[in-house]
Specification:
214 residues; 9 helices; 80% helix
Length: 214
């Protein structure tokens, strides 16, 4: 497949505002889930049994499905989307670690992640020149900036922000682990939401690229 054009059709201000409004509603809806969990889920709040944890998995599963759509239906950036898909699915598996360790066997999630990640990385390395060419186009898009932001929020900031020592220092004798868990899980959910929005933008962009090629 030939590389996509570097300058697809411009996006109108009205459409940009509409998409921004929808993304605001998505973020607000996820925040309301946390509010609902805090108020009405009296046991297991912000744990593996909570609504926020379920929302994280649903967000990742939706992202994985959209990536399959971009790769298999729109046939855009096959190597880039393969690596993104492996990353998102690995994250989804990681979110199920408690259930897998409890109901299957300890460290099951690590085996499943390896089965997803290693073949994908091997294929990307095998077709590294194609990947580099695709990435050159993707790196200059709004989608890539959002995706990178989501990864940084989820895998860097949330881990540092959720440190027990930090919240013990902030709350001192009033420290509650549930408060620390809530903060960490909500930041993580925000990161996953940014990744989802990035992939929605990629799906829209892929459609525009395909239309431009026609």
């Amino acid at each position: 497949m030939s590389p996509p054009p570097q300058h697809p059709w411009p996006i109108g201000f009205g459409i940009a505002c509409l998409r921004a409004g929808l993304y605001i509603l998505l973020i607000a809806g996820l925040a309301q889930l946390a509010y609902f969990e805090a108020h009405y889920l009296h046991q297991g709040r912000f744990t593996e049994y909570g609504i926020v944890e379920l929302a994280q998995s649903a967000t990742l599963a939706t992202s994985a499905g959209l990536l399959l759509y971009v790769r298999q239906v729109q046939r855009a950036l096959p190597m880039v989307t393969l690596l993104m898909f492996a990353f998102v699915v690995s994250s989804l598996i990681r979110e199920q670690d408690y259930w897998l360790d409890t109901n299957v066997a300890r460290h099951t999630w690590k085996v499943l992640v390896a089965l997803v990640a290693l073949p994908s990385v091997a294929l990307v390395v095998r077709w590294r020149h194609q990947f580099a060419e695709e990435f050159r186009h993707y790196a200059n898009t709004f989608s890539f900036g959002l995706f990178a932001s989501g990864v940084l929020v989820t895998y860097v900031f949330s881990r540092l922000f959720g440190r027990q020592s930090l919240w013990q220092a902030i709350m001192q004798e009033s420290y509650l682990r549930s408060f620390k868990n809530a903060a960490e899980e909500m930041v993580e959910l925000l990161g996953y939401a940014l990744i989802l929005i990035a992939i929605v933008e990629l799906a829209i962009l892929a459609r525009r690229w395909r239309a431009a090629q026609r």
